[in-house]
Amino acid sequence: MNNPAIRFQTDAEAGQARAGTLLTRRGEIETPVFMPVGTAGSVKGIRFEELEHSDLDARIILGNTYHLWLRPGIETIRSCGGLHRFIGWDRALLTDSGGFQVWSLGALRKISEEGTEFRSHVDGSLQFLSPEVSMEVQAALGSDIVMVFDECAPGNAAPEEARQSMELTARWARRSRERFDSLQQEEADSGKKTAERLSGTQALFGIIQGAANLELRRESLQRTLETGFDGYAIGGLSVGEEKQVMWDVVGEIAPLMPPDRPRYLMGVGTPEDLLEAVTHGVDMFDCVLPTRNGRTGQAFTSRGRLNIKNAQWAKDTRPLDESCPCSVCARHSRAYLRHLYLTGEMLASILLTHHNLAFFLDTMRGVRQSIRSGDFPKFRREFTERLGTNGE
Ligand SMILES: [Zn+2]
């Protein structure tokens, strides 16, 4: 049998929670893992050296197909040797399919069986994205993990609309799979890299849709499994639905996903959300919260969120989080960070982003260690208790 694109193994379990190892052509990733979001080829506000540094040690980041396709464009990235070389990052990259971004354009897009027509947010030009185009773009980017092109139904979709959307996603997944496979044979993958026990090709993940309807979600899972993928994702959550809806879906679907493949919950969430999802057996996460909130002055800490603008920190010489081992907390006070933020210094965003990412990545490190040592329930209980003490 040919070598696979990735290998995944579970090393320890705690209930449904699992700690595992995801082997990619660009290195080993311990799971559960948080993936910082690098929308347009940069994780906003942080250098790649910092992401690699032991403070953060991010093993995999995300790139957005939609944004990179429109700007700088695929020809540019291909001629610069693929996305890894273009941006200067040699660790693993996962690219989304553009489906979610196009869906988010709302009235600016038109969905048909063939694909989605939309106006570019950059220059207003008419563009067309389909499963085939998305696979071609992701092959040119050379990401290590490729996502199928899917359609996302709104959380409050009527049953018939949600069904049609789920069925369209299933048909698009098959088309994605076919085009993806032919692109791998054509060696269109710009990121190809030999790796021991792996094929050196890209991996393709399927996406389970079906809005808030559990029956549709189960059917979507079944149809996604029939097509067959290297890993499986739950999409279409955290799009404005009630939290309980998300947990009903994750609680139902995650344990039904193949145990020997990575499970990825797309676009979720807060540190509390990550822990909750881990208890249902999810392995991979991405979210813009640590970077986006860092730029608006909000820090995630082990004692809850802290708004650096507040006057109460004006003379506070304590770090953002007294139990955070990151280099920002080792050096700078809340008073100084507040001053930077209020005077509009770009360093405020840089430092808050660094700390927030360190907090998310460190939390996941703690999750992994506690699952491996059999202490996950205790870790989770203490983490939740501390969060309630709110910024003090
Ligand atoms: Zn810190």
Give the names of the bound compounds. Answer: zinc ion
Strand order of the largest sheet: 4-15-14-13-12-11-7-6-5
Give the C-alpha Rg: 21 Å
Q: Whole-number average pLDDT?
A: 95
**Secondary-structure-derived class:** alpha/beta
The number of helices is: 15
**Percent helix among the residues?**
40-55%
Q: What separation lies between the terminal Cα atoms?
A: 57 Å
Low-confidence stretches: none
Looking at the structure, what is the overall shape? globular
List the quaternary state of the chains.
Answer: single chain
Biggest sheet statistics: 9 strands, parallel
Strand content: 15-25%
Strand tally, please? 17
Provide a descriptive summary of the structure in words:
α14 (346-373) runs antiparallel to α15. The strands form four sheets. The protein has a nine-stranded parallel β-sheet. The protein is 41% helix and 19% strand. It is of the alpha/beta class and 392 residues long. The model has no long low-confidence stretch (mean pLDDT 95). It has helices spanning 48-52, 65-70, 74-79, 83-87, 99-104, 131-141, 159-185, 214-227, 243-253, 271-279, 289-295, 327-331, 334-342, 346-373, 376-387; strands spanning 7-14, 17-24, 27-31, 33-35, 37-38, 60-64, 92-96, 109-111, 116-119, 126-129, 145-147, 203-208, 231-234, 263-265, 284-286, 298-301, 304-307. Bound molecules: zinc ion. Zinc ion (ZN) is lined by residues 320-321, 324, 326, 328-329, 355, 358.
